Each structure stands twice: as C-alpha cells, then as structure tokens.
Amino acid sequence: MSTHDPAPDSERAPLELTTEQIMLIRQAAERLRGEFDGTFNAETIERYMLNSQELLQSKAKFAMWLPLLIERLTRDRLRALARLEVGTLGKPAVLFLCVHNAGRSQMGAGWLRHLVGDRVDVFSGGTDPGVELNPAVVDAMAEVGIDIGSYLPQPWTDEIARAADVIVSMGCGDACPIYPGKRYEDWDLPSPSSQSIDEVREIRDDIRTCVEALIATLELDRIGA
C-alpha cells in the first residue's frame, strides 16, 4: 500500500455543505476505499478526497454536483497515482483537455473509450471547467451510440497530467500543462459552444478522425466501430 500527499490547493473559499452532501461524500469515500483496497490505504484516500473537495468547493458553480464531482475527481486522481507509483500494466494513458471540459475533450475521451475500451486509461479535464456538458454534444455522441451524458466537467490535476503518456489539447492555449517527456498533440478544432447540431456533428466526426489516428500511433487494437 502507498501513502501520498496531494499537492495543496492555493485557492480556498469553501462552500457550506448540507447534511445530505456530507453523507454522500462519506459514502463515496467508502466506495473508493473498496475500489483501491490493496493499492492505497484509507488515510491516502481520505487526503485525496479532502484535497479534491477543497479544489472543487472553491468554485461555487459546482455546488449542485459537488459530492459526485469529488468522488469522480478523486477516483481519477487515484487511478493516475496508481500508474505513477504501481505501474501502467502496459496500458498507455491519454489526457484530453479543453477549456470547459464540456465539449471537445469529452468527445475525444468518449471516442477513445468506445473504440479501444480498457486497453487505454482515459482522462479528461478543463482549464476552466463548466457546470455541465454541452447538450448538443451529448446528443451528437448519442447519435453514434456513445453515451457521455453521465459525465461532468472537472479540472485536470498534477498527478493526472504526470500519469498521461499523451496530452491532447483542444483550445487550451498557454493554459495547457507542460511536463517533460510527454507527447503533446494540439488538435485545432472549433468549440461546439453555440454551434448548431449539424456543426457539432462535424466537430464530432473530425474528433473521431483524430482519435483514430492517435489509436494507430499507439498501436492499439480497436473493439468498437
């Protein structure tokens, strides 16, 4: 088992949690302890839960989904930390980034999961995460049989970026994390924000083309059509 201290968050203006939210967060901690039993001890998981909570509580727009966001962000951070400390098990990891993690990066992650399944570790995040996914993006992906409706925008963190073999940026500019030894791809694709459904479909299909090219360079076998 490993112990590890997450990087401290410099921005702290916590929201008041309701009794129900506190209960849901405790239940999430129990689930994560079960998932990562034998990899990380309870103390490490609690520290990452608290750090993720502090990170997300500083952004009031996350209030409605706070317990779910805390659980998902903590899970992704622990998955990333496991890659860094335990090993990759031969699987590459890809981090998709856009500004709000509400459109392009979610489509990229959705396509990669759909096409290669668990042959790759997939992460996504935003430099300034939004409140919810773009409904037109969710609809366009559903048209091709990919359900991303249950996902929510979230930030990227240091351990997630360090764990990634490939970092794909779509519109992040200078806000994209720079780490030595990483492979970076900058996909010049328009934001689906305020676009018509037909335009979102075009972006969706362009992202698929880019993801297929990425899969080929990673020499991964496809499972989806």
TrEMBL record:
GO BP terms, alphabetized: response to arsenic-containing substance
Taxonomy, superkingdom: Bacteria
UniProt-listed InterPro entries: Phosphatase-like_N, Ptyr_pPase, Ptyr_pPase_sf
Entry-linked Pfam families: LMWPc, Phosphatase-like_N
Keyword Secreted: no
Domain Phosphotyrosine protein phosphatase I stretches: 92-217
Alphabetized UniProt keyword annotations: Arsenical resistance
Xref: PANTHER family: ARSENATE REDUCTASE (PTHR43428:SF1)
Protein name as annotated: Protein-tyrosine-phosphatase
